[in-house]
């Protein structure tokens, strides 16, 4: 038996067997495969901001004055900037290396090994993935056909869970959590995390409610509206007693100096960033119309920067593959609750035009044999 084999045998079994997270792949890989320059790839698979960071953030990154010293473990400057942005005092804010880091901390703080998080499918698949890696598990409550929450089922499942994750607008459906749904979740008494990664595109938020409901945690991120996904910066708004613990147990230096510089500069450039959000919201409407005009494409109305589309009579996986061959990246789903769906991020108008033309081509090309299967079942 090799030494490597023995090492693997010593791993915690639940981690040795853990399924991977379906993370997005870098566009350079696809560009290489197709023999295209990476600028020609139309990347609409990860809800990133097609306009990139603000010019002020780029300038701040270039100055790089503080990169040789450790960042502030108490995150004072970024927390102050986030606090001002959402209208809270700094002691209600903790920052993380992406909201991903905060999701990790929240699961670990509330759901121990063998305990459960509650989530509402279809939703962000990062929660069950992380729960698994942390030795916890996910209790899945399916949404109704219109993607609203099945509150009865949620309330019934709540006693078996330790923390609730609800996304608004939800990824990948683009639908909002309603106030009665949120109230019902909060009334279970469990910690309720509302992940508002896309709130800026919806123009609606529950952040003001955190003051009144001590079991509400709102998560935000700079990855989407501020165009900083590559720098990993998110934050949570929560009761100061929880914030204090999060700040105590987190990785001390997880907010790196570059992310801090870019975030502070972004809040100095809010007018421009808000214009870009507006452009994306407007483009969302135009893209929804163009996609709905394609026969066999059913678009879910969205409040986020992406559109979920059901494809009739073709396999989403084949559509995804053929779009890739044309340099267009989208996300596809083929799960029991999302059969033959694609999620397409809203990009710039020129990207929309390429996507729509490519999708029309692909749908004409693909045999429609699955139509019969869908209709007879
Ligand atoms: C994109 C996204 C995030 C952002 O995660 P970061 O770690 O901040 O980049 C969080 N939640 C949901 C539901 C998302 O779709």
Q: What is shown here, in short?
A:
The protein has 377 residues and is an alpha/beta fold.
3D structure, described in words:
The chain is of the alpha/beta class. 42% of the residues lie in helices and 16% in strands. It has 16 helices and 13 strands. The protein has helices at residues 3-9, 13-16, 27-34, 55-63, 76-86, 98-110, 126-133, 151-157, 179-186, 199-202, 240-249, 257-267, 270-292, 316-325, 349-365, 370-376; strands spanning 42-43, 93-96, 116-121, 137-142, 163-167, 192-195, 216-221, 234-237, 297-299, 306-311, 328-329, 331-335, 338-345. The strands form three sheets. A seven-stranded mixed sheet has the order 2-8-7-6-5-3-4, with helices on both faces. A four-stranded antiparallel sheet has the order 9-10-13-12, with helices on one face. A two-stranded parallel ribbon has the order 1-11. The protein is globular, with a radius of gyration of 21 Å. Pyridoxal-5'-phosphate is lined by residues 47, 98-100, 124, 167, 171, 195, 197, 221, 223-224, 229, 234.
